Amino acid sequence: MALIIGDECINCDVCEPECPNGAISQGEDIYVINPSLCTECVGHHDKPQCMEVCPVDCIDKDPDHVEDQEGLYKKYLRLTA
Predict the structure, then answer these.
(1) Mean of the pLDDT values across residues 1-27?
(2) Pfam families, per this entry (predicted)?
(3) The whole model's pTM is what?
């Protein structure tokens, strides 16, 4: 499952550099996560790094992009090939 940044985002800039896949970018109003690049840090870290550093806990699983661990790992392999 990809992650999504909620409206509570304060644009603090700490999540973007933590993403090993470059999935986070500045959107029109708040940061956004590209679901085709988000692996929840599977293959890189034990926990999603953006969630670890977010000071307002505004990052959650995206119900519109459901993926299991195996799917996230396959995406990681495609992105790092």
Answers:
(1) 96
(2) Fer4_7
(3) 0.93
